[in-house]
Structures are given as C-alpha cells and as structure tokens.
Amino acid sequence: MTFKRSCCPITNALDILGDRWTLLVIRDLVLGKRRYQEFISSPENIASNILADRLKQLETSGLVAKRAYQQSPIRYEYVLTKKGKGLEPVLETLVVWGQKHFPGTMVFPRVKRR
Amino acid sequence: MTFKRSCCPITNALDILGDRWTLLVIRDLVLGKRRYQEFISSPENIASNILADRLKQLETSGLVAKRAYQQSPIRYEYVLTKKGKGLEPVLETLVVWGQKHFPGTMVFPRVKRR
DNA sequence: GTGAGTAGCTTGCATACTGCAAGTGACAAT
DNA sequence: ATTGTCACTTGCAGTATGCAAGCTACTCAC
Hints:
homodimer, mainly alpha, Arc Repressor Mutant, subunit A, 6 helices, 2 strands, DNA-binding
C-alpha cells in the first residue's frame, strides 16, 4: 500500500477528517440527523456548498451512505456506515477534552426518530 | 461565555485542531519531539512556514509552551502543556480507528531522551 | 393553473489559507 | 574567511472557504 503523506494512521485519518467541518457533520449523523436541512440548521451555520462538498467526500471515503427516502420528487438522506460509526469513540474523547478545557460547552441531545 | 461558532465542545476543539497539520505536530510532541528540525523531519514533510504558524497558534491556545534550551544563539524548544497532554486519548482513539480502516498504517516509536 | 413552499443542491465571486522555494540572522566550527 | 546549523521569515501562486443567490423538481392551497 502506498500512502498520500505517510503510513501514520493519524495522518491518514486527518486526510479525511482534518478540517473545521467534516467532524461536525459526523457529529450530527451520530446525533441522529440524516437530512440536508437538518445539517444546515445546526448552530454552526455551515454553508450549503461546503455541506454538499463534505457529504460527497464522506461518501467517497466510505464513512457515509446516501440513499433515497422517497421518490417523486426524489429526496436523499445520509447515514453513517460501520466505518463512520467507528469514529464515535474519537468524538467522545474529543467531547471529554473539549468540556474540560472550554467551560460552558455542552453536548447536544440526540435527535429522536420514529 | 460567548463562543465563536457554537457552544459544542467538538466545535471549539476543531477551531484549534481542525486542519491537516495541527494534530500531527501534537503527535510529534507526544512522541517526544521538541525541536523545529525534529518536526520538519517528520515523514509528512510539513512546510516550515506552516510549522511556524501552527506552533504559534498552539502556543496562544495554551496547548504548547515554548522555552529556550540555550542562549547565544538563543534556541527554542516546544513542550506540551497539561491541556496539550490531555489530547493523548484523542490521538489514541484516532490511531485505533486509523489502523483498523487504513491497512498498512503503523505508529511511530517514541523518541528517546536523556 | 398560478403562486407559494420545500428539499437538495449548484454557481459566482471575493477573501483567506496552504504550501513550495528561497532567504535571513546569529552564531559555531574549521 | 568559509561552511554549516538552527529557527525561523518572506514571496507568491494555487487552493479552499464562505456568503449570497439561483436552480430543479416536485407538492399543496386557492
């Protein structure tokens, strides 16, 4: 196997996750969000072109799967794959660190479905 | 407290760590590296201006402390603060995820000192 | 059937960030 | 006097970000 920057697992993870938005989209997915408008309405106010770009990248890296939830007009939703769900422990340790060092931060409640 | 993007701990963490290089510098620090040339010689080939910028940012966010290790000519080295060391579990979970999903990746050995 | 609304994007464009290459200043060693 | 080392700094072209607006394909109310 040949790697883009190095054979370090952290480096390869950062080539997918290393920006200010990708992990927030994954956070939303972990919280139960699935649709474009749900991501858009998160408090960080992601721009729609950036969201579209990140969803596309997450799909091609196999962290997220896109599927139609209705036909006519066709509408899509996004869900985490196993690989994507595997990032939950990373988010959890990040939350622990963040809550310790940024007083006043809090976690969002999970979105309820069905 | 008022936050830049939101009161989410992940968001606030990403405002410091959310790019392709910062966590690699922290990885190097965790591995025991301290000097400019040591960071420069990591296999990812960080550009020197980016390294200088990231070290400055890490210092102002209180993750890294800069100190002179000699006078005449004055030379500096960098070490993790407690806040910076607190990121070790995050790196560890990232390594676990990375090794699982990028076959062939490996962790670097710690630098020996003294 | 016209108008308004909704969902999931796409496009244009100015500004900000990234990264390569080269240069700088203060020394130490030969 | 020359070469080398270390810790940066600078110039500049290319890439990414983010705001605003637009687009497509519907549904629903009137």
